[in-house]
Amino acid sequence: MDDQDAPERGEFAFETQAIHAGQGPDPRTGAVMTPIFANSTYEQDAPGDHRGYEYSRTGNPTRTALEDNLAALEGAAYGRAFSSGMGAINTVMNLLSAGDHVVTGDDVYGGTHRLFTQVYEQYDVETSFVDTTDPEAVEDAMRPETELVWTETPTNPLMRVVDVQAVADVAHDHDALCAVDNTFATPYLQRPLEHGADIVSHSLTKYLGGHSDVVGGALVTDDEALDEQFGFYQNSVGATPSPFDCFLVLRGTKTLPVRMDRHCENARELAGWLDAHPDVSEVFYPGLERHPQHDVAARQMDDFGGMLSFELDATLEEASDVVGSTEVFTLAESLGGVESLIEQPAPMTHAAVPKAEREAAGLSDGLIRVSVGLESVDDLRADLDQAIDGALH
Ligand SMILES: *Cc1c(COP(=O)(O)O)cnc(C)c1O
Q: To which protein family does this belong (predicted)?
């Protein structure tokens, strides 16, 4: 990549960086889009004397463009891309040793919960799950051997909002790292490094890719030593993305600002409409003023995102009928693509959580989660209206 043509971090607005950061026209051909460097290996001029790339697990120019782009969007010095969000999260866990302790949210992403318990407990890394919207609960869970506080905001599926600065302060008081999974908000709405986090992780599969056509992950940081370790684990563990996948995510990040504006606008509109709907008993959206952490969200985020959940006065079966009878919303897990998705956490994303635990956590049978896409909001509203009416009346 011709780094001289790529804008310097901080020099341009987010929208400009989304399109240009990490990417200049290809110096050999002038190609405007970053080429897909489909190489496993690179010529050396003499043994050990290479032009920046030796082998594509270690580094690849298309991946470098993506890593520099993501770092710029988070306002960070360093970025690393992975083959999935879980590959990125696992890399942070690779920093720990037997006997270390982790504190995280009790409603953390299911895959993260599985990794921390079913994989890392066998290596004697123990995790405490607490309500991270309450910094005192985080403080109470800290131990002398706590090395990492892992948080996520907004959370899934109840859209709780964590005060990143408050949690980072607790972590730092105990010499632990603070990592934030910024998948739901994206750097367009929230940049956790500005609020004291040491590491930001992403599932690129969601809004950053944005088109439900790629799986990827990333870590960004301002700490050079941490970045070097992430690079060591990229190379040693090998959870790195293909150049084609990097190209797809680069294609997505260029339109992130315009997509997010519309995701937020459509979600805000639907949240307000659902809030007034007679069959809906609760709406979980940080943009609603009565959301318990609305003030934190308003301070920490530039807008409230495209994800929301709502609770119907309905049985599990009736709610299943609702999610099964939409025409514009697709019944599917995942989120963050241009198309609207609908799902029922109880039998789908949160099926592994026992019913009693699920209900204690506020995940009722009638809870429905939507990833609000970029279709006409009138069509989305009409679709939910006919699905709810058909299933409940
Ligand atoms: C999807 C997701 C992940 C995992 O990412 P993959 O790309 O599916 O491996 C992690 N955290 C959050 C919040 C997610 O939504």
A: Belongs to the trans-sulfuration enzymes family.
Whether the per-residue pLDDT at 69 is higher than 50: the answer is yes
Residue owning the nearest CA to atom 8 of ligand 1: 85
CB atoms within 10 A of CB 338: 15
Residue with tokens 């934190």: 296
By C-alpha distance, which of 106, 162, 153, 196 is closest to 296? 162
For residue 91 and ligand 1, the question of a CB distance below 6 A is answered with no
Contact indicator for 103, 111 with CB cutoff of 8 Å: no
- CA neighbours closer than 13 Å in the CB half-sphere of residue 286: 30
Report which of 93, 160, 154 is spatially closest to residue 127, judged by C-alpha positions. 93
DSSP SS3 for 94: coil
pLDDT-derived band at 4 (thresholds 50, 70, 90) equals: very low
Predicted pLDDT at 32: 94
Question: What is the per-residue DSSP string for 104-127?
Answer: EETT--HHHHHIIIIITGGGT-EE
Ligand 1 site, residue 110, Cβ cutoff 6 A: no
Question: CB of 197 closer than 6 A to ligand 1?
Answer: no
Hey, what domains does the chain have and what are their CATH numbers?
A: 14-254 (3.40.640.10), 256-392 (3.90.1150.10)
220 bridge partner residues: 79, 200
Ligand 1 center from residue 88 Cα (angstroms):
9
Record the tokens describing residue 145, joined without a space.
């051997």
How many C-beta neighbours within 10 Å does residue 26 have?
17
Report, as an integer, the average pLDDT of 129-149. 98
pLDDT value of residue 360: 84
Q: Is the pTM of this model over 0.90?
A: yes
Q: Cis omega (within 30 of 0) on the bond before 157?
A: yes
The type of residue at 392 is L
- The dihedral sign for the CA sequence 373, 378, 381, 382: negative
